[in-house]
Write a structure and sequence with these properties.
Helix content: 55-70%
Order of helices and strands: HHHHHEEHHHHHHHH
Number of domains: 1
Largest sheet: 2 strands, antiparallel
Radius of gyration: 20 Å
Distance between the termini: 46 Å
Oligomer: single chain
Length: 361
């Protein structure tokens, strides 16, 4: 009974706490003339409401089609009870948020910019790669979806398309990177190489982090709101896309909070990773994106360290040693005795602090 009350409290209180944290971020940033920009809150609210409502319609459909998550048996044993939970939840919030953002942008700001079109296209393209991976996993009923090289190749193809589209559509695009203390790093052609690296790196990092109920959705909502606030003065349409996607994440949490009734799948995680990367690149926010992605980055680094150390310490029996009990790191914490809700609330709190750090002026 205690554990049931705890999960229910986390579900309602956790979402409310996250929403309050996002509002505090806005206050910390001295959110510029909010009353003069009602379309920002409108996008956030519509993205949340439309995704939450769409979830109630899609959940029975996903159940009927048996679009259900495959749970790894070598993972935390507590996750085995999640078998049968619908996945592909990204279908709830990616199209909904894109529709909201495009509608509000067109109504409030006029014709969307080239940058907006590229950001939305990258988001949906990465979501489509994730959908293909999810579909293949469900088709064969195993964790073997797209081959890793094929998935990475498709992500690189989207990155190349973004770079070419930006170079051709915006030949005057500033390739400098704004750093703290007013320092600007001019990379020249190196910027395009960096941009081509950031997109697949970000998509895979969010994908690896999506392993606990509400974790990736909450972290992404915080990062997207922070990026939206930073983008308001110079790229209002990109800011609208960011807050609409953040609203989509909040709406998704209505169904994804612990115990989750649906998972976002690669459809959602790759789409969110693509959105964060595109907004950071197109909105000249690569440094804040790095800060906002530190948790995603750490999750990825733990996987790389684990694999590298295991290979380096293999003995004659072919068995190596492990640095962590399991990776990504959130699973290490679970196997160390942390409850799932503890890990998620801790990571959300850290992300809020990182977002606040980005917004302090």
């Amino acid at each position: 009974m205690t554990r049931t009350l705890e999960t229910k409290a986390f579900g309602t209180g956790g979402i409310l706490a996250l929403a309050l944290g996002l509002l505090l971020l806005a206050a910390l940033a001295g959110f510029p003339n909010l009353a003069e920009r009602p379309w920002l809150m409108l996008s956030l609210g519509l993205g949340t409401a439309l995704t939450a409502g769409l979830g109630y319609l899609l959940l029975p459909w996903l159940h009927a089609l048996k679009v259900e998550q495959i749970i790894r048996r070598e993972g935390p044993q507590g996750h085995l009870k999640k078998a049968g939970t619908p996945t592909m939840g990204g279908l709830m919030f990616l199209p909904a948020a894109g529709l909201v953002a495009t509608g509000v942008v067109s109504a409030a700001l006029g014709t969307p910019s080239v940058a907006y079109g590229l950001a939305l296209a990258v988001t949906l393209a990465c979501g489509a790669i994730g959908w293909l991976d999810d579909w293949l996993i469900l088709r064969v009923q195993s964790n073997a979806g797209l081959a890793p090289k094929a998935k990475l190749g498709l992500q690189i193809a989207v990155a190349v398309a973004l770079v070419l589209g930006l170079a051709l559509g915006r030949p005057d695009f500033d390739t400098g990177i704004a750093l703290p203390l007013g320092v600007t790093l001019n990379l020249g052609l190196g910027f395009w190489v960096l941009a081509g690296f950031v997109l697949p790196a970000q998509t895979n990092a969010v994908n690896l982090t999506d392993g606990l109920d509400g974790l990736a959705a909450g972290l992404s909502a915080i990062a997207l709101v922070a990026l939206g606030i930073l983008l308001v003065p110079s790229h209002a349409d990109l800011a609208l896309l960011a807050v609409s996607l953040a609203g989509g994440c909040l709406g998704f949490l209505v169904h994804n909070h612990h115990p989750a009734r649906v998972f976002m799948g690669d459809t959602g995680s790759l789409g969110l990773g693509g959105a964060l990367a595109a907004l950071g690149i197109l909105g000249h926010q690569l440094w804040p994106l790095l800060i906002l992605s530190l948790i995603f980055l750490w999750e990825t680094v733990t996987v790389i360290l684990q694999v590298s150390y295991y290979k380096a310490t293999k003995g004659p029996d072919g068995v190596g040693k492990r640095l962590f009990k399991m990776t990504p790191y959130h699973h290490h914490l679970e196997l160390s005795g942390w409850r799932e809700t503890q890990v998620v609330s801790c990571f959300w709190s850290i992300e809020l602090l990182l977002a606040g750090l980005c917004l302090v002026r």
